[in-house]
């Protein structure tokens, strides 16, 4: 018959599979044979088995019975602590460890068990106490303890401390080196990771798949996809087979640089070597598929990623599956699909609930669409489920969503109610105020950021200059630009010069803008010339506009926006032959002008309109109300700005063309569908037409609505005959 030495091995085998049913059956035999009453070795094995099988309640019950009978020892405590760590309850593991050390001396296994718990919740102070205990008890010399301490500090982001511990270790193995390489990779210190990696090669330390995967993952996280692919090729030359983690990191690398071909090659490798093989782990398969969905989405192959998503059974999808698909849609221009999928996720009767990353992706989609109503519903869900109280990035996304959906005051409320803020929180609010033309408030927030002890970086100054530009605060913008390097140590980049060209150009100071470009320490990028070209359109400077357009052509930055701006400049100057030449050039080079589209929120969702649109069921009512409004505002001083009708026809016909612009149609629909006093929220995919801006300003005098219009550049709040932009748009 089996004895007290047999059962621990059998129970360990059950835990390794893991097989709860077999383990429970063996436990029953243990009880029948009486080993559960006095044999601590067998009982400890039962605790460990249940822990590995995920049966925490059974493991705890066995442990409590051991304690009540007074036969428990340090191994019993190690087993229950390990059970909590393995099953994702590090806080309970720490509580049990504290109870253990009150009655028993912890051994090396105890420390190796508890240090990962400290790492998983970032409890570096507790980990430091364990480190001190190891030093006092002489346990640090154990290589497993040393490795666990290095790993704990690394996962808490304290790489300098981890490096000191690593240097003090007399005996190191490949795990020690891997912990350091992985730690450096995870916090983005790729050069340190690579340096250590090369040192391992020089010292002839065996590089295993974990080492290579750590370097690949580090490059992937920093967006250095091609470097990661190069490391992967080296790994294959060395004869090592990648594991699931390697392939997921490799797919992330392909996604970061849009390397679709290499992503497909990785997909093929996964099919041959991992996916759908007999005996393969379904969890591993899902990790790979999630990585593939993410890669195809970020490589702009949304149809393929959606096909892969749909191929997974609803019950087999995890939160990552949903998040990468929703995020893929949100990031790459399919925001409506992102929100539909998010709604479907919430309506499904399953246990997969969105996490903070899913919520952030959905809020990003709301930001892109200016979908304030949907964003508010998500905010309510966040409040009910307390996401914003534990996840800073969710609160930051709420600030961004409200600002980009036209309610910057709500963004400020979210900001003011945050317990903790980081640089993104402050920058998001500054951006929001800038978009709405509230430059003074933007600069007040910037001053508050400095008082809070945060150091402004290059991104902060981009949004500060943007806010100055859209509020006509030219002198303040110049002051901040000049103080960037002297006062804050931030060297102006090409994006800062582009903001300054925009700032000066909007104010009509085109000669100063040109001098600034000529004095740039780097080659002007397309964004600089586009800013100048846009200013030339506003201030009708044909000669300088032609020069800016020529520079864009030399840089091979050919997009519909640049051609359209130049065509508009020629049309405004009534140079119709040049307008025809530009249109012919666009046709010859295959560049198509994006059609203007405006959408407005109504009672039953969002409706979109194109120029001259007559497809809506309420078309007749819309055109009728628009005709009435135009006649009324003409009586109080509105004159159609026919220069914005870019066709060589008479002024009367130009007026008819202006009448059908998409933003006017959206406004008419909004008036029909909104109760008096309710704001009308319109979004346009391009810059608002100058005539429409003038007309809507007049219309806001005679209707009982605030009109909030978001175009490709900023927000316009029309109320009582004035606009928040004050002409700086």
SS-derived structural category = mainly alpha
Largest sheet: 6 strands, mixed
In round numbers, the mean pLDDT is 90
> How are the strands of the biggest sheet laid out side by side?
2-1-3-4-5-6
Evaluate the radius of gyration: 32 Å
Tell me how many strands there are. 6
The number of helical runs is 38
Give the overall form.
Answer: elongated
Proportion of residues in extended strands: under 5%
**Share of residues in helices:** 55-70%
Low-confidence stretches: 646-655
Whole-Å distance between the termini? 89 Å
GO biological process, one term: RNA modification
InterPro entries: DYW_dom, E2_motif, E_motif, PPR_At4g14850-like_plant, PPR_rpt, TPR-like_helical_dom_sf
GO molecular function: RNA binding; zinc ion binding
Organism: Davidia involucrata (Dove tree)
Write the layout of secondary structure elements.
Blueprint (H helix, E strand, L loop, with lengths): L5 H11 L3 H13 L7 H13 L3 H14 L4 H13 L3 H12 L6 H13 L3 H13 L6 H13 L3 H10 L5 H13 L3 H13 L6 H13 L3 H13 L6 H14 L2 H14 L8 H17 L3 H10 L7 H13 L3 H13 L8 H14 L2 H14 L6 H13 L3 H9 L6 H13 L3 H13 L6 H12 L4 H15 L5 H13 L3 H9 L7 H14 L2 H13 L5 H13 L3 H14 L7 E6 L2 E6 L8 H17 L15 H9 L2 H12 L6 E5 L5 H13 L4 E4 L4 E5 L2 E2 L6
Parallel strand pairs: 3-4
Antiparallel strand pairs: 1-2, 1-3, 4-5, 5-6
What can you tell me about this protein's structure?
This protein has 729 residues and is mostly helical. Among the domains are: 207-312; 613-723, no CATH class. The protein is 67% helix and 4% strand. It is built from 38 helices and six strands. The protein has a six-stranded mixed β-sheet, with helices on one face. Strand 4 (707-710) and strand 5 form a beta hairpin. The longest helix is centred in the middle third of the chain and has 17 residues, at 282-298. The N and C termini lie far apart (89 Å). The model is unreliable at 646-655 (pLDDT under 50).
């Amino acid at each position: 018959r089996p004895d007290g030495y047999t059962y621990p091995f059998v129970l360990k085998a059950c835990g390794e599979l893991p097989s709860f049913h077999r383990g429970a059956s063996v436990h029953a035999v243990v009880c029948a044979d009486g080993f559960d009453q006095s044999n601590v070795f067998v009982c400890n094995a039962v605790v460990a088995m249940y822990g590995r099988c995920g049966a925490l309640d059974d493991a705890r019950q066995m442990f409590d019975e051991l304690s009540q009978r007074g036969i428990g020892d340090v191994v019993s405590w190690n087993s229950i602590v390990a059970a909590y760590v393995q099953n994702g309850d590090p806080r309970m593991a720490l509580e049990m460890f504290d109870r253990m050390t009150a009655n028993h001396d912890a051994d090396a296994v105890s420390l190796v068990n508890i240090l990962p718990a400290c790492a998983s919740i970032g409890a570096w102070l507790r980990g430091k106490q364990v480190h001190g205990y190891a030093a006092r008890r002489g346990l640090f010399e154990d290589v497993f303890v040393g490795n666990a301490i290095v790993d704990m500090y690394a996962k808490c982001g304290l790489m300098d401390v981890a490096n000191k511990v690593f240097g003090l270790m007399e005996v190191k193995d490949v795990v020690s080196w891997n912990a350091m390489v992985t730690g450096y990779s995870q916090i983005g210190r790729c050069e340190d990771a690579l340096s250590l990696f090369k040192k391992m090669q020089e010292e002839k330390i065996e590089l295993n798949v974990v080492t290579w995967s750590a370097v690949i993952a580090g490059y992937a996280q920093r967006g250095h996809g091609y470097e990661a692919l190069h490391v992967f090729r080296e790994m294959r030359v060395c004869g090592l087979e990648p594991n699931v983690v390697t392939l997921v990191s490799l797919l992330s690398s392909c996604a970061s640089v849009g390397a679709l071909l290499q992503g497909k090659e990785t997909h093929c490798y996964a099919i041959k070597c991992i996916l759908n093989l007999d005996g393969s782990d379904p969890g591993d398969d899902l990790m790979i598929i999630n990585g593939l969905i993410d890669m195809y989405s970020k490589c702009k192959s949304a149809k393929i990623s959606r096909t892969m998503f749909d191929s997974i059974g609803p019950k087999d999808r995890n939160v990552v599956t949903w998040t990468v698909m929703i995020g893929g849609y949100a990031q790459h221009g399919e925001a409506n699909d992102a929100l539909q999928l998010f709604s479907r996720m919430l309506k499904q009767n399953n246990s997969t609930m969105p996490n903070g990353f899913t919520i952030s992706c959905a809020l990003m989609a709301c930001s892109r669409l200016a979908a304030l109503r949907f964003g508010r519903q998500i905010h309510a869900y966040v409040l009910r489920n307390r996401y914003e109280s534990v996840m800073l990035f969710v609160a930051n996304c709420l600030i961004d969503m409200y600002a980009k959906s036209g309610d910057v005051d709500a963004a400020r409320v979210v900001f003011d109610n945050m317990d903790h803020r980081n640089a993104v929180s402050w920058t998001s609010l500054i951006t929001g105020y800038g978009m709405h033309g509230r430059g003074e408030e933007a600069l007040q927030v910037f001053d508050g950021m400095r008082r809070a002890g945060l150091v402004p970086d290059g991104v902060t100054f981009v949004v500060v200059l943007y806010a100055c530009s859209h509020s006509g605060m030219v002198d303040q913008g110049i002051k901040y630009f000049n103080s960037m390097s002297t006062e804050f140590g931030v060297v102006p980049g090409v994006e800062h010069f582009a903001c300054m060209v925009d700032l000066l150009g909007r104010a009509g100071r085109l000669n100063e803008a040109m001098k600034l470009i000529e004095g740039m320490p780097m080659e002007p990028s397309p964004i600089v010339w586009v800013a100048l070209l846009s200013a030339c359109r506003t201030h009708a400077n044909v000669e300088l506009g032609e020069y800016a357009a020529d520079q864009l052509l030399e840089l091979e930055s050919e997009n519909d926006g640049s051609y359209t701006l130049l065509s508009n400049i020629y049309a405004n100057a009534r140079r119709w032959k040049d307008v025809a030449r530009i249109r012919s050039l666009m046709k010859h080079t295959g560049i198509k002008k994006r059609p203007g589209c405006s959408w407005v929120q109504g009672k039953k969702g969002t409706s979109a309109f194109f120029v001259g649109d007559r497809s809506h069921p309420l078309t007749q009512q819309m055109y009728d109300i628009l005709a009435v409004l135009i006649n009324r505002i003409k009586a109080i001083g509105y004159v159609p700005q026919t220069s914005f009708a870019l066709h060589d026809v008479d002024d009367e016909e130009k007026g008819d063309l202006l009448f059908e612009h998409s933003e006017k149609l959206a406004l008419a629909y909004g008036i029909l569908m909104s109760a008096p006093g309710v704001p009308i929220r319109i979004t346009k995919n391009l810059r608002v037409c100058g005539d429409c801006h003038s007309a809507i300003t007049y219309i806001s005098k005679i209707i009982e609505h605030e009109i909030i219009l978001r175009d490709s550049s900023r927000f316009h709040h029309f109320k009582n005959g004035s606009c928040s932009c004050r002409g700086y748009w």
